[in-house]
Amino acid sequence: MSGEDKNVDILVKLLKDTRLPDGVSFAGKGLKLNTAEDAKPVVEAIEACDYLVSLNLEGNTIGVEAAEAIAKALEKKPEFKCALWKDMFTGRLKEEIPKALKALCGGVMKAKAQLEVLDLSDNASGPIGVDGISDFIRSPSCYTLKELRLNNMGLGVTGAQMLSDALLECCWRAEKDGNPLELKVFIAGRNRLENEGTKALSCVFKKIESLEELSIPQNGIYHVGIKALSDALYFNRNLKRLNLNDNSPREMGAKALSRALNNVIALKSLDLGDCLIKNSGALAVAEMLHHAHHIEEVVLSFNSIKVDGAFAVIEALKSKKNFTSLKLDGNKFGENGIAKIKTLVDEIWKSKNVLDSLEEDEGSEDDDEDDNDGEEAEEEEEEEDNEEYDDEESGSLYDNGEEISGEEEEDDDDEDDDVKVVENDNNTSRKVTTEEKKVVTVSEFIANPTIGNLMALGKDPADKLVDEIMVSYFNIV
């Protein structure tokens, strides 16, 4: 073969290997795919795509049979990298979700594809959703995973622990295979992770040391969980974006987090809005921000921060040449404090509109009680209470994959209970059933859920029921 022919062969090979990435998107089509026939348009689009890098099924609803048909098409796509599968189980029975996910993930595994992005946000599946992806997460197809997006899936503590186990095994297998997992983006807002779920996932973050973006807002995490998270973030020195909005780290958590972030060299965005960090927490954050040379955005809204705390933050940021946005609304500045803060910001950043409006300020710092150790004691009490979350925001509770509806059956026999009349302190009469006088345990109520037994649970029956469910079914104490 002549040198010229050899060069032509090399050129042909290079052109063949330099195919432009492509994808298939049915995002927002609102398709209801139940059967293989229903899934035919998606299957045909996948088969017609010469180099399928991404598949976007957001906003459709996928049944098990349809998922199996789509998975069959994915088996022939080893180049597949981005599974964009948000919001695709609306109206589905919860038993369908893990089966559909296992089918889709199985197709990717059979193709021996190397996935980089998995987005299952807004599927609200609960812990059973993790059942559908656990084997996949452990497989070689996820050794290359860079982004894991699970926003609003209702994972709960159980789901978070299951996910942590799968990711840790993936780490171990990938490392043994000479291809360490380098997860860069983890998104899991509104998932009821709480302290225990956060602690479990922190084990993963500590192991990988590769996070660049972590977003877990609205998860009911107190300082115990934030402390575990901080220990893990210390080892993720290239972290660029951190969002803990609407959790409860308070002062203790803010201080632990600030110490950890001192070791981070790339931080660009920090969101601690509505985190109850108060003034001492803001001062700790300010100390850390002195070393955050790449910082661009800081959110400290609704934290009961006083003027001196705000001043400390502003002073820490004034030398940061890339800084563009500071949100301090909803704190304790008062009119005079707001004026001083705006003046200082204008002097430093001139007319760059760095500061938010401060229109929702919550009053003068004089109206706020001084920070004291009593607040930390109050926080510990709140943690022990295991605050119940509104199901409308955080999804349903699950009992071994079965949804607990919260509906209680009434027993018509209660109407026949013996009744007597008693007088209260105002000499007015009321009827009291004999059922009201007895005391029953939560276990007895669950065995016989009558109205009378509910009343006999005593004070705060809902809290007692939640505690029993957490202990008996989820092993959370």
From TrEMBL:
Pfam families: LRR_6. InterPro entries: Leu-rich_rpt, LRR_dom_sf, RanGap. GO terms for cellular component: cytosol; nucleus; perinuclear region of cytoplasm. This is Ran GTPase-activating protein 1. It comes from Rhynocoris fuscipes. One of its GO terms (biological process) is nucleocytoplasmic transport. Residues 355-434 are annotated as: Disordered. Coiled coil: none annotated. Transmembrane segments: none annotated. The lineage of its organism: Eukaryota, Metazoa, Ecdysozoa, Arthropoda, Hexapoda. Residues 357-418 have a biased composition (Acidic residues). GO terms for molecular function: GTPase activator activity; small GTPase binding. Keywords: GTPase activation, Leucine-rich repeat, Repeat.
